[in-house]
Recover the amino acids of this structure.
């Protein structure tokens, strides 16, 4: 993994009239990282991405992407040359044929366009070059946009809900392509999704966005290590376990209970044992479970 | 890089170019083949207004407008802006292609008209000075250039400059080159506003500067008739009246087309299960598309009434139309036409300024003013009908009133929201009923009277 920062935001804020879409977001994404940007629908993920790409103007705060200010229209094209973007809407020129839109992008990218890579992806994704973009299925459309986004080997690949609404085959293709893209050293992927299983499969680090606020940023490994569900069997009716340090929430009642913890450790198990638990069984939490817990807490 | 951009612009403009060429060819064919055989000079005279003013103007506005709406409306703006192309090149490609196409269209218009005027059988018609063609071309290109410069406003955010837009278009043009403005679909409304202002202000100014009359001057002789089409405040009724006749159906056509487009658009969206109903921005655009031709159609109707009403309507036969009155009426109608455009432009300027998102209150005021202005025009038209026409052309009254009804129906039913006039308001029903009944009452009361 190469060193350096790919994305840096400071107190980034975007307000639409009465609605705060992005609220004081400070974030740093390192080069070579796969960063999963997670949030419910309407949490502000797309707005944040648009701010990162200079497609929207921040109400407040600062953005730096690959060393560029994306709002500097005189230099934005230099940033775009190092960047690949798959939008949530996947809007392209519908009237163009697949071959034409590939040629169009190849033309505007110039020498950085890897024709071999483009051809290989056309083959791999099974594109009919004579079809018009508007004739493509939703999945193929997403794959085409991905092709256009990666054929110049971008330093930063930004994906906004890349697999939302797609069938499992197309989703898998996209994820595999993302993984391939970052296999080359120093390439960074920033992708937003509300499909947490796919984030879990590929991301190194995740950020949880809730109502425009970045409520947590952490590596997946650390999250999984910290967050656990501990199943407990008590000899009788337990009382006051929520007071034990490290217990976030207690689920269930009676003899069999579970505690959700965001600071799992041997000390916690020991404390639960001292409290009288007969059986203590720690279980990992999925990213989705962790996200729900974090959102519930906020 | 530029090659790809120009190619894209050309492919996106191609439908408009084809449509423009077909329309141009059809118009020319109509004048030469259908009407020309009967009375070519007169036909050419009547076509001047359309060929010279409406044709290039409408085509250019559509072309320039589509450059903005195309990217924004189809959602491809983000795709384009995330390509590694400098913003200035994107804008340059748009300008270059639209200007090139516009130049071809304007030249075609001019050449076709010129060719028709120098046909052997119409040699007794003096062709307009070539300077006119040049002026027209320069004006059209300037207009388009202005629109295209404003287009650059569509690319980056700078709301305070939008406020300055209507105050000093020139200043904004310079700013647009360096900064631009973040687009909203509703900005497109402003295009037509600016175009209206330019047409209303720049054209007369250009003509004033050249020392020419407002419209091309033609002298013609056909059969026993002869006239000079345009002298300042002179008896220009020959061409003006005939032109009104042409403006009138054009206005009607323009009035009918937007609702038709809306219906088709709705049907397509419904079939594709896409967004329904229309976005607010599109609604505003269609609203303005309604307004401008509506004003034109009413004035066209009014002009026709004035032209045909000399000494014939019962209420005016005791006061035969004199030369003095003719001059006055001509002046009023010409001023009225431009005043209407300016009024619509001014009324809608808040819509342009605010981008509609931040100052909802101003928009309400603008809508109120727009309603008042258009209804005022309609009532004025109906008033003229009532005064001058019942005996001669009672149908004109019905058509004028029909505009009101059509407007009500289209705004309420087709647009699917509380429209320009609330049909549920009984006062409007009464107004429409009175407006429809009154001309018939006039016909009935005047029946059998001698017409002088």
């Amino acid at each position: 993994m190469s060193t350096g920062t790919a994305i840096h935001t400071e107190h980034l804020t975007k307000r639409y009239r009465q609605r705060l879409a992005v609220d004081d977001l400070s974030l740093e994404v390192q080069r070579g990282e796969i960063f999963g940007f997670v949030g419910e629908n309407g949490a502000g993920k797309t707005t944040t991405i648009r701010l990162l790409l200079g497609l929207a103007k921040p109400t407040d705060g600062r953005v730096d992407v690959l060393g560029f200010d994306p709002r500097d229209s005189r230099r934005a094209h230099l940033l775009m040359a190092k960047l690949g973007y798959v939008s949530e809407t996947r809007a392209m020129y519908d009237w163009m044929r697949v071959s034409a839109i590939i040629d169009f992008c190849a033309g505007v990218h110039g020498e950085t366009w890897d024709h071999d890579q483009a051809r290989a992806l056309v083959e791999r994704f099974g594109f009919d070059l004579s079809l018009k973009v508007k004739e493509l299925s939703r999945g193929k459309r997403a794959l085409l946009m991905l092709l256009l986004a990666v054929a110049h080997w971008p330093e930063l690949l930004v994906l906004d809900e890349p697999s939302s609404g797609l069938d499992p085959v197309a989703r898998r293709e996209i994820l595999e392509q993302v993984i391939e893209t970052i296999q080359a050293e120093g390439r960074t992927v920033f992708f937003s999704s509300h499909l947490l299983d796919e984030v879990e499969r590929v991301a190194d680090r995740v950020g949880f966005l809730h109502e425009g606020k970045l409520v947590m940023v952490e590596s997946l490994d650390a999250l999984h290590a910290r967050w656990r569900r501990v199943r407990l069997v008590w000899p009788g009716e337990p009382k006051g376990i929520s007071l034990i340090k490290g217990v976030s929430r207690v689920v269930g009642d009676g003899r069999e209970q579970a505690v959700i913890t965001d600071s799992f450790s041997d000390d916690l198990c020991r404390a639960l044992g001292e409290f009288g638990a007969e059986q203590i069984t720690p279980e990992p939490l999925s990213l989705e479970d962790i996200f729900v817990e974090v959102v519930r807490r906020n | 890089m530029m090659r790809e951009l120009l190619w894209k612009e050309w492919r996106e403009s191609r439908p408009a170019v084809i449509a423009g060429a077909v329309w141009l060819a059809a118009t020319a064919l109509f004048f030469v083949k259908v009407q020309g055989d009967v009375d070519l000079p007169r036909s050419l005279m009547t076509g001047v207004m359309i060929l010279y003013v409406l044709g290039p103007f409408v085509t250019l506005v559509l072309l320039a407008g589509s450059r903005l709406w195309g990217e924004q409306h189809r959602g491809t703006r983000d795709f384009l802006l995330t390509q590694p192309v400098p913003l200035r090149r994107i804008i340059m490609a748009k300008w270059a292609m639209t200007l090139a196409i516009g130049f071809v269209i304007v030249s075609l218009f001019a050449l076709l008209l010129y060719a028709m005027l120098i046909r052997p059988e119409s040699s007794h018609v003096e062709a307009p000075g070539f300077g006119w063609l040049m002026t027209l071309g320069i004006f059209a290109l300037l207009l388009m250039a202005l629109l295209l410069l404003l287009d650059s406003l569509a690319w980056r955010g700078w709301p305070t400059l939008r406020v300055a837009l209507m105050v000093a278009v020139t200043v904004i043009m310079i700013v647009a080159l360096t900064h631009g403005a973040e687009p909203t679909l509703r900005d497109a409304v402003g295009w037509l506003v600016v175009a209206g202002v330019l047409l209303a202000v720049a054209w007369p100014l250009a003509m004033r500067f050249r020392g020419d009359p407002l419209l091309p001057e033609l002298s013609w002789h056909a059969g026993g008739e002869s006239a000079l089409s345009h002298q300042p405040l002179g008896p220009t009724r020959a061409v003006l009246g005939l032109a009104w006749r042409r403006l009138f159906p054009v206005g009607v056509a323009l009035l009918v087309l937007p609702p038709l487009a809306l219906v088709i658009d709705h049907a397509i969206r419904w079939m594709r299960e896409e967004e329904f109903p229309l976005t607010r921005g599109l609604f505003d655009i269609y609203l303005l598309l309604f307004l401008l031709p509506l004003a034109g159609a009413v004035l066209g109707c009014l002009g026709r009434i004035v032209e045909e009403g000399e000494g014939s309507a019962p209420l005016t036969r005791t006061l035969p139309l004199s030369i003095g009155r003719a001059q006055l009426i001509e002046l009023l109608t010409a001023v009225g036409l431009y005043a209407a455009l300016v009024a619509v432009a001014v009324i809608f300027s808040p819509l342009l300024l605010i981008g509609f998102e931040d100052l909802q209150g101003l928009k309400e005021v603008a809508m109120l003013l727009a309603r008042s202005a258009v209804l005022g025009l309609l009532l004025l038209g109906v008033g003229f009908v009532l005064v001058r026409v019942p005996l001669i052309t009672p149908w004109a009254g019905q058509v004028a009133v029909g505009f009101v009804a059509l407007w009500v129906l289209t705004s309420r039913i087709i647009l699917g929201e509380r429209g320009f006039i609330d049909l549920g308001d009984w006062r409007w029903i009464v107004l429409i009923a009175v407006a429809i009944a009154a001309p018939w009452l006039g016909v009935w009361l005047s029946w059998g009277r001698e017409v002088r």
